[in-house]
Amino acid sequence: xxxxxxxxxxxxxxxxxxxxxxxxxxxxxxxxxxxQLRVTDVAPxxxxxxxxxxxxxxxHATLKAPFRLAEGYQRADLEQALQTFxxxxxxxxxxxPQVSRMGQFLALRPQGDESxxxxxxxxxxxxxxxxxxxxxxxxxxxxxxxxLSARQLRLLSHWGxxxxxxxxxxxxxxxxxxxxTDSANAxxxxxxxxxxxxxxxxxxxxxxxxxxxxxAPFILLQQFPFAAVREKSAALLSx
Length: 239
What we know:
Blueprint: E1 3-8, H1 14-24, H2 44-50, H3 52-57, E2 61-67, H4 75-86, E3 92-94, E4 98-102, E5 105-109, H5 115-127, H6 137-144, H7 150-159, E6 172-173, H8 184-194, E7 201-203, E8 205-211, E9 219-225, H9 227-238
Antiparallel strand pairs: 1-2, 1-8, 3-7, 4-5, 5-6, 8-9
């Protein structure tokens, strides 16, 4: 069954979006795969394999993890709720994003005060939770097979996702697990060089994304801009 997700994707930051798309070999706005960056000392097939899951989700950071709509709700209800939610939000600048190791995988992480980002993520989790269908038994069992702490299991039961509240870590995923590959350091060094951008990375809206069936690529359905971004766009159009 289809799932929806609330992501940050740098649609309004072209340099970052292009860098992420080239790194993963796919644009989240398109189901098809595209050109992937060639990395020195790493065979293209190896990099392609080690970014398979990250590529399926697209270049993004999770605000509210994928969920099925609760009974009685439709996509239009989710879109209306997003419209209302984003109308009262302001742009957040992600401080000094850098390539970091997160356990076994690589991701872009903020380097500084994350309080605004964390607040946005928790508000996104809470405000849309009435639209989320409960996890099915098989979904819950699959999550419980992971190495989750007692606290993460409680969050999983409450929010349908274990990495919320104080367990949340904002990140844009760059690879799958690298622990069993000799290419890990070369991929890390290549990522550091590739994402050494000077442009600010800003959260200017929420991306509504969609998975048509289990295992299908997530695609961007619509970007819901924050209030200040909409006002700026309107001013430019009327100028």
